[in-house]
Amino acid sequence: MNNTIWRTLGRFVLLMALQLLVLNYVYLGGYVMPLLYVLFILMLPTDTGRIPMLLISFGTGLLVDIMSGALGFNALACTVVAMMRILFADRILTRGEPVVIQRPSIYSVTPQHFIFYLLLMLGAFFFVIYATELFGFRGLGGVLLATICSTLVTTILAIIYQLIFLKKEEA
Questions:
Q1: Using CA atoms, how far apart are residues 41 and 48, in angstroms rounded to an integer?
Q2: Which residue pairs from 130-133 have beta carbons closer than 8 angstroms and sit at least 24 positions apart in sequence?
Q3: In angstroms, what is the C-alpha Rg of the chain?
Q4: pTM score > 0.85 for this model?
Q5: pLDDT digits (tens, 9 = 90+) for 62-78
Q6: What share of the chain has pLDDT > 70, as a percent?
Q7: 85 with 41: CB under 8 angstroms?
Q8: Which CATH architecture group holds 2-165?
């Protein structure tokens, strides 16, 4: 149990550092904004309680907002993703079976289920971000295009992150 906490904290520090020091400065064509730090929330153990999940997610988003000078968009989007994860993660990752996954990853569940999980959660995350931030400027078409592009790029980065930093035996 203690080992799980240390690994989770290490993943938090690594993803936050990567996000704040590198990915916050990557903008591709105005429609792609990779926000890989949300993978921390998506990889929390499935037995994390509802209230801790919401508080951790809100705190993570708020920290990114404070460090990057945003107006609360990340805190809102992370809280929405946490709520969606509470409602849907068991159905997607474990297919309704009473199984606790210590670290949802491409190794701990079937790759197609994990990729579907990433696409669904990241799609919701980016839609909330772009709908609150850009809706008045770009309209629904721009929001959807930015959501799709950012979701695809961040999903690819999340898979690469897992292939590099996770070992198959640890998952």
A1: 11
A2: 132/73, 132/76, 132/77, 133/73
A3: 15
A4: yes
A5: 999 999 888 889 999 99
A6: 91
A7: yes
A8: Orthogonal Bundle (1.10)
